[in-house]
Design a protein that fits this description.
Blueprint: H1 11-66, H2 72-76, H3 79-88, H4 91-111, H5 119-149
Length: 159
C-alpha cells in the first residue's frame, strides 16, 4: 500500500508534539480550575450574604412588630451583620445597612431610656422611624437584586 504522505519524524519532533499536547491539556485544566474557583467564590459570597439577609429579615420583622418600642437586645443582634456587610456588599449598600442599623438602634435606645420619651426624643424617634421605613425596602430590594444577579431566586420575598 502506497502512502500519499511520507512522514518521517525524528525523536525531537515526537517530543515536541507530545509537549504541545500536554500544554493543550494543561490549558484546558487551567480553564476548568478557573471556572470552578469562580463557582467556589460565588458559594462563599452567597453564604455570607445569606447570613446578613437573614439577620436583616429578623431585624426588619422585629421593627415591624414593635415599631417604636423596639427592644435594644434584639436590635443589637444585627451589629455583626453590619460589620460583615462591608465585606460582602458594595460600599453603597453597606452604608445603607449601617444607617438602617443606626436608625433601629436609636429607636430602641429612645424607647428604653429611664427618663422616658420626651417631646424632643419623640421627634428624634419619628425621624429615625422614617429612616428605618425608607431604608428597609431599599435594602431589601438591593439584596434581592444581588441574589438575582448571582442567579439565585429566594423562595420567599420580604415586601
Amino acid at each position: 500500500m502506497n502512502c500519499i504522505f511520507n512522514i518521517s519524524l525524528s525523536t525531537s519532533d515526537i517530543i515536541a508534539i507530545l509537549a504541545f499536547l500536554v500544554a493543550g491539556l494543561s490549558a484546558l485544566y487551567a480553564r476548568w480550575s478557573s471556572i470552578e474557583a469562580k463557582k467556589a467564590n460565588q458559594i462563599s459570597l452567597l453564604s455570607g450574604r445569606k447570613e446578613i439577609y437573614i439577620a436583616f429579615f429578623n431585624l426588619k420583622m422585629h421593627m415591624q412588630q414593635y415599631y417604636d418600642s423596639a427592644q435594644l437586645v434584639e436590635v443589637s443582634k444585627f451589629y455583626y451583620s453590619v460589620i460583615n456587610s462591608q465585606i460582602y456588599f458594595p460600599a453603597d449598600l453597606a452604608k445603607e445597612v449601617e444607617e438602617y442599623y443606626d436608625a433601629c438602634f436609636w429607636i430602641a435606645e429612645i424607647h428604653n431610656r429611664k427618663e422616658g420619651v420626651t417631646p424632643q426624643s419623640r421627634e428624634d424617634q419619628e425621624r429615625y422611624l422614617e429612616i428605618e421605613k425608607k431604608l428597609s425596602s431599599t435594602i431589601n430590594s438591593k439584596i434581592l437584586k444581588i441574589f438575582q444577579n448571582m442567579n439565585i431566586e429566594p423562595k420567599f420575598k420580604i415586601s
